[in-house]
Amino acid sequence: MVVSVSIDLPEDIVKFLNSDIRNQERFEVCLLNLLSGFVENEMHLSSLTLPRLFALIYGYEEVGEFVDGLATAKDKAGCMHINLRGLPAYNYRYEYVSSFSENYAVAMLRNNDANKPYYAHINKKGEPIYEERYYEAGHFKEGFAVVADAKFPGINAFDGPLNLRYFHIDVNGKRLYKNKYHYASPFSDGIAKVTIDNESYYIDINGERID
Question: How far is CA 140 from the centre of its chain?
């Protein structure tokens, strides 16, 4: 099915509407959702963006901006990423997902025990790239990411700010060095800022202090 678009819309939306939609019945339902969404919310076509379009026609509760062809989205089952056709990029659902950075995203895995870590990094197939789970995880930058575990495992990690310990890992989940810190920044040009016991300084990717 090919839809001819003659109104002034952003290029990415026109490309989607003019694409070959294989499931004609599903697409017709999507168009009805789109039109009813504009009527109910008194929206104008000039305000239409691709994320908003997908939220309306596919019924997503939330849709983020596209990064490298994928956007964060949320439906009734949970959070995931969608592609430029508005479809889920994988079958997994998470409590939270971030946008992708260097081909990996942060995901909050479902966990019934609040005292256990639940963050990991996933690939574009929605699969965790390592077995370890963390209390916090940041974006990959220069091939490394900041993560945090607990100094006293088994208790609520957020009872006190000094319980979390930060360090860097590579894309295989391997720690770069032995030390852990109260704070660690992402690497920039091979250098990261860390803080331990109120003392801040810089380290290289081997964890060596740079004076």
Answer: 11
